[in-house]
Every structure is written in C-alpha cells, then in structure tokens.
Backbone:
C-alpha cells in the first residue's frame, strides 16, 4: 500500500494502492511511513509519488465512505475515525520536520491534491494528469481546515478557481498558476523531484527548528494570520517569543 525507500539523504514514499484513494487503512499505512521518516536524523528530505501511471491520488474512497452497510472488517477500516485521522495526517505532512516534495505523476483530485499541497514543493508531469479540487462537482463542501490550507498554498485568483470553480489544472497551467514549482516529463519526473529534495535535505538536519518555523507559519496563532501587521509585530517583538 505504501513503500518507503531511502537513497542517501532522500526518502521516496511510493503509494502503491492503485488509485490511492484515502480511507482509514490508507491513512494509517501512510502515517507509519511518516513515523519512520521523522524517526531518522541528520540531513534528509521526502519525495512522495505514486506507482500508478495514471493517478497520483484520486481523492477520498467514495464507495467506502458512502457505503450504507459498513462492516467491522471492511478493508477501508473504521469510518468513524477517518475524518480526524486524515486531517491529523495532513497537518503532520504540512509541518513535517524535513523538506518534502510531491512528484505528481498523474491525476491529483480532491484529497489527493490536498495531500500534494501539504508538501513544501510540487513537481508535476507536464503532458498528462490534472490537479483539481473536485468537491463542488461531487456536491460536497470543502471543510474549513482544508480551505485554510488551500488559501495558504495558492495565489488568490488560483485559490478561487480551484476551490469554487473546480478548475482542472494540467501541468503547464498549474505551473503558471503557482500550484507547482516545476513540470517535467514522465520519464524525468522522479529524478527532478529527487534533485529538488537532495538540494533541500541539508535543511532537514535542523529538525526541531525546521518544524518549529512551519508551526509559526501554519500552526496555532500563525504569524500569517494574526490580527496585527508586521510593522506592529516588529515594534512589539517581545510579544512574539520564538
């Protein structure tokens, strides 16, 4: 379901569950791998990709989550805990203590795009695949924590077209819109992502500081969200210990 390899300073997390739809079982398998990455020390970075040539991740496991007759032994796991465990995992990825790069080698829809946006950088296949928050098309409202993530990660016009108009972004469009930092051919995508990760890996040597600053950006009372502007904060820096 999830494979993890390490080559020097770069961990490569490979999702191997077909369309890589998110359910509780998938969340827990992914969490175990994140545990392993964070248990390492020294310079490091993470690349996340998919073994499927068509899908990076096709979002929520809709058949599982909408089933009218769930069973205790359902392979998707316990539906009651899914929301909390999935959101917790996303928060861990966005504040990961090492740099992270999503190598988007196919479609990234809904929760699949969300997971990619939780990474520090994104490289997308240039010739195939769409990035799309398709909740509006499915008759779903995006939860506020997820909207906050999208707002942090996307330029304003891109944010609205993505979350409200469910626009599908191909690789070149996603690059121009600021969703991804680079595009590459299918053959070179993983190498390009790993090269980016290798360049960022030295930042992972300072795990505590790297994670703490992410918390200042994305966590409780995040600097980007506080009621006062930066001039006030600079004049009153004693109120903002670090």
Residues:
């Amino acid at each position: 379901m999830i494979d993890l390899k390490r080559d020097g300073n770069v961990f490569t997390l490979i999702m191997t569950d077909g369309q890589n739809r998110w359910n509780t079982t998938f969340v827990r398998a992914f969490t175990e791998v994140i545990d392993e990455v964070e248990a390492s020390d020294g310079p490091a970075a993470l690349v996340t990709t998919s073994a499927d040539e068509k899908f990076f991740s096709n979002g929520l496991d809709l058949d599982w989550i909408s089933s009218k007759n769930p069973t205790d032994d359902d392979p998707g796991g316990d539906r009651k805990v899914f929301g909390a465990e999935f959101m917790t995992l996303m928060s861990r990825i966005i504040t990961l203590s090492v740099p992270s790069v999503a190598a988007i080698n196919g479609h990234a829809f809904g929760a699949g795009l969300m997971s990619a946006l939780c990474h520090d950088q994104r490289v997308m296949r240039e010739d195939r695949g769409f990035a799309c928050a398709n909740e509006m098309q499915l008759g779903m409202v995006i939860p506020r924590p997820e909207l906050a993530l999208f707002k942090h990660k996307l330029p304003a016009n891109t944010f609205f077209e993505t979350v409200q108009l469910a626009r599908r972004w191909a690789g070149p469009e996603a690059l121009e819109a600021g969703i991804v930092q680079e595009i590459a051919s299918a053959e070179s995508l993983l190498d390009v992502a790993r090269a980016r990760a290798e360049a960022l890996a030295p930042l992972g040597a300072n795990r505590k500081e790297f994670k703490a600053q992410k918390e200042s950006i994305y966590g409780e009372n995040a600097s980007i969200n506080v009621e006062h502007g930066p001039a006030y904060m600079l004049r009153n820096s004693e109120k903002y210990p670090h």
Q: What stands out?
A: The chain is about 40% helix and 15% strand. The chain has a mean pLDDT of 93.
